[in-house]
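Narrative of activities, Objective 1.

The group set out to show that a structural description can be obtained from nothing but a protein's sequence at a throughput compatible with the screening campaign. Below is one input-output pair from the validation batch, recorded exactly as produced.
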Amino acid sequence: MNSKIHILGAAGSGTSTLGNSLAKALPHTHLDTDDYFWTTKYIEQRPVLERKEMLKKDLSRDDEWILSGAVAGWGDCFMPCFDLVVFLWIPSEIRLARLQQREVERYGKDALAGGTRYEESQAFLEWASLYDHAGMEVRSKALHEQWIAELSCPVLRIEGDYSVEERVAAVINYLNSNNPC
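Output recorded for this entry:
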């Protein structure tokens, strides 16, 4: 049974969006790693031990859940919990355009040149642009591939620019074809 699903990918690949959408189609609770990683979202990180304890508590609360985001590195202890991992990848130019738009939606004019969050926004976008080419020192495809190789559960790869509906259908089709009951 695939009752414990983890969705990972680069920033802007749609992990949270897919997690939210799947939770509406399945009897699963949706959790997002950003809620555990950040004390103040995108500004101050929560201490590793504290985020692990919080996530452990929430994962044990429900029998069926979807965890979106990334735990590679700080949350490797959760790897045995997963029944299925969904890896999302989209072309960098599409992903970065989404992130740029999200920054403006989130912070308005402050994210634009001359704005109070411009430098912070540019630093985030620069970090996010490293995903496809960086090594193991940052959240990267190389890091995720190594992490995936260490999993004992199945991995469903959804690679390409698919709509949310197409991604939901791909996961549900996978679940149906691998759960005979």
